[in-house]
Amino acid sequence: MTPAHLADRLEKTPGPQLPSHPAIAVWRAAASADIDAIHAVVSAADAVDHPTWTTPRQDVAEAFESTHIDPARDTLVAVTADGEIVATGVSALHPSRAGGMLSVDLSGAVHPQWRRRGIGTALLRWLDARAQQQVARAAQSLEGGGSEGRLKAYVEEPNTDHATILAAQGYTAERWFSTMERDLAQPVTTLPVPEGISLVPYHRARDADALAARNDAFRDHWGSLPSNEERWQQFVGGDFFRPDLSRMAVTDDGQLVAFCLASVNEEDFAALGASHAYIDLIGVVRSHRKQGLAPLVIAAALEAITAEGLERAVLDVDTDSPTGANRLYEGVGFVATHRVVAMVRRL
């Protein structure tokens, strides 16, 4: 009989062993001094795997700034005899322990010039072993021993090599996410604001309220766990977040009930072929759903983005969203362009 508690199921989980590969002289943990070299690998991979957007350097740096990631244990880089980093990976255990769920995101990249040599397979095996170890240790500290462990990696659909090595390691496709774009040359329909609701730009004084609204709005979404203050501050305090282009719906008594939050990374303009804003989050708190607030905040944000002179708006959506978000976005003019698959291994 399989033990009911995660801690019991993973009691004898071994730690990861450093890979061995003839083309790699050294496998080691990443250090902050490697940020630029790692970003170079990731950028080269981006150009092949998803050429319409690039990973900001800030995203790489966050692995060395986030308290839930220990770079000495949770990261790995592959270094050639010439001292060049050609592959990189991170196993990030989500800080939430809600419901006894322990979730790890595996991310990484192999420089395109070094692919199809088995380096990615070796890297993934290490990441998978480290993720299992993270879950096992965290489960031991949870009252009741934890309920479920989930290892997850996102794969761009054209990157079949990535999907293949994950499948070989026991990961299966569970969910698909579409990237959608809206041409802002097309007019935005201004929607009437319901009585008792005000539309306002995002204000940093409402950071805590916005985090609470985000966690409430997304608690029934696939793969979503509560965000914490550190991760939220990395987002709203980051270089790309645009409070002036973001919109919140607020009740007369001051409750934040819906939001559409946007960012702008000018480095992506050339990749997409158009200036644009990325809509990071759209949500409505559960007590105020089915009142037309989602299209309201989206339309208000699109009007602000258009007034900024940007040409497009871009977002990503779960194709099986429980709120029917993909149909909502199609209804306000967004068109799907490509897909990402979430591949998962459950422990």
UniProtKB/TrEMBL annotation:
Residues 1-12 have a biased composition (Basic and acidic residues). One of its GO terms (molecular function) is acyltransferase activity. Keywords: Acyltransferase, Transferase. PROSITE patterns: GNAT. Transmembrane segments: none annotated. InterPro entries: Acyl_CoA_acyltransferase, Bact_Acetyltransf, GNAT_dom. Residues 1-20 are annotated as: Disordered. The keyword Transmembrane does not apply. Its EC number is 2.3.1.-. Pfam families: Acetyltransf_1. Residues 25-200, 197-347 form the N-acetyltransferase domain. Coiled coil: none annotated. SUPFAM superfamilies: Acyl-CoA N-acyltransferases (Nat). It comes from the Bacteria. This is GNAT family N-acetyltransferase.
